[in-house]
Design brief:
Helix 1 crosses helix 3. It contains 13 helices and 13 strands. A hairpin with a 6-residue loop joins strand 3 and strand 4. About 15% of the residues are buried. The chain is α+β, with helices and mostly antiparallel strands.
């Protein structure tokens, strides 16, 4: 076994100093020589069949030692952190101090400890009031109008007809600020429903009365609270060509309309919409309750120093999550940031507090699982993996990844956390 000295550093870091006796390196050197012989043509030997002495004579002992080093360091490091129960996070910073044929190998590894919950909040003294979602008739009316719009017929207008507030138009748009085109303000086929609110007040009024093929130029002020701060409150020039005009013919909201959607009558359709809306609001309420509950426990708990590396990693995860969400909506992330008048470094600063809270929540969930002996059942893990894999049954590579040890560990953590949340809900959420 390597000799290991452990030194506690600041910011929850640990320095491990290793001395690997030369006699313990032989198995690693033999394996390294075999790997080299597979990659190097050695006259008189098939790939991988030359022994250590032959390979040494071909490439030199130092080359074999360098090839073996990664395995020696990895094995020594893993054995040490397991033996001394060091819960690490991130990649160790390894520095090799002595590496020479026929000598002990000396190296150090500085690693960050996973911070611990020093004192968990007394959850028996905490409470979060359960939310009671309600659906109003106006909510149903709005949802019903959305369904109606999806079933609305669009009839192309004749050349002489003009746009009204009940129509849909498709325009070619070019916006300019101080004579300069606004980034993202050009669209060759921009669809607008004139019976709905538009984000630039006054735009719809300018378009009423225009015909297909007609061109208009006008100036409108952007709202003071507009998300694009560079445009907020500014007068913007619009160059518009009306390309297509459609009269909208919405269906009547009656029993016939409901029957076309598979419902008994309009009352049954309203009831179905109400149940769907209620289900959505209940899910939102549950998520809100759990977020408040977990953050409350985290705020009232005490933790070790949380390493900067862990915070930076969490911030990067949040940036990546935001980017995927923006791109899923068909937007360019760079444009999104520009509209917010933010840079990546500024976003990272903004996310710091939330990242710290996410880390603390993860730590308290881990601690509660440990204290309460909460774990995921093997059968539940298998069932969840099978459910996910079913979605990729035609993609062998994706299915293999789902059943990999890494993804299995991830799923185990997800299911364990669900149990922790249910445990906390029973203690903290009050009706």
């Amino acid at each position: 076994m390597p000799n290991v000295e452990i030194e506690q550093l600041d910011k929850n870091r640990v320095k491990l100093s290793f001395v690997v006796p030369v006699e313990e390196t032989k198995p690693y050197l033999d394996e390294a020589a075999t790997r080299i012989s597979k990659q190097t043509a050695i006259p008189g030997f098939r790939a991988g069949k030359a022994d250590y002495e032959i390979v040494k004579g071909r490439v030199g002992e130092m080359k074999i030692l360098e090839e073996a080093l990664e395995s020696i360091v990895r094995k020594s490091f893993v054995s040490a952190v397991l033996e001394h129960d060091i819960d690490t996070v991130g990649t160790p910073d390894v520095d090799v101090g002595k590496l020479a044929p026929g000598n002990d190998i000396e190296f150090t590894a500085i690693v960050t400890r996973m911070p611990k919950t020093k004192e968990l909040a007394d959850v028996s003294k905490l409470s979060v009031k359960a939310q009671t979602p309600e659906i109003k008739e106006t909510d149903i009316d709005l949802a019903l109008r959305d369904v109606q719009r999806m079933q609305t017929k669009e009839v192309r207008a004749t050349a002489e007809e003009t746009a009204t507030l009940e129509d849909k138009i498709v325009v070619s748009m070019n916006m300019k600020l101080d004579g300069v085109p606004v980034e993202g303000g050009q669209s060759p086929n921009h669809a607008i429903y004139l019976n709905e609110d538009y984000y630039i007040p006054g735009f719809k009024d300018e378009m009423v009365g225009t015909k297909e093929g007609e061109e208009k130029t006008f100036t409108l002020p952007f709202p003071e609270n507009h998300v694009q701060t560079m445009l907020a409150g500014k007068d913007v020039l619009f160059e518009i060509t009306l390309k297509e005009l459609f009269h909208l013919q919405p269906p009547e909201l009656d029993d016939e309309f409901a029957a076309a959607l598979g419902m008994k009558d309009i009352g049954a359709l309203r009831d179905t919409i109400k149940q769907n809306l209620l289900s959505e609001k209940e899910q939102e309420a549950r998520a809100s309750e759990e977020r408040e509950m977990l953050e409350m426990v985290a705020k009232k708990s005490q933790f070790d120093d949380i390493p900067d590396m862990l915070v930076n990693d969490e911030i990067q995860k949040m940036i990546d999550e935001l980017k995927r969400g923006v791109e899923a909506q068909g937007l360019e992330f760079a444009t999104y940031l520009q509209n917010l008048n933010k840079t990546i470094p500024q976003m990272k600063i903004d996310f710091t507090t939330q990242a710290l809270m996410r880390i603390k929540v993860a730590l308290i969930m881990r601690e509660i699982a440990k204290q309460e002996d909460i774990s995921a059942d093997e059968a539940d893990i298998e069932a969840e993996l099978d459910r996910v894999a079913e979605q990729y049954k035609e993609q062998k590579e994706a299915k293999d990844q789902i059943y990999s040890p890494q993804y299995r560990e991830y799923m185990e953590q997800i299911l364990r956390n669900r149990k922790v949340i249910e445990h906390l809900r029973g203690l903290i959420i009050k009706q």
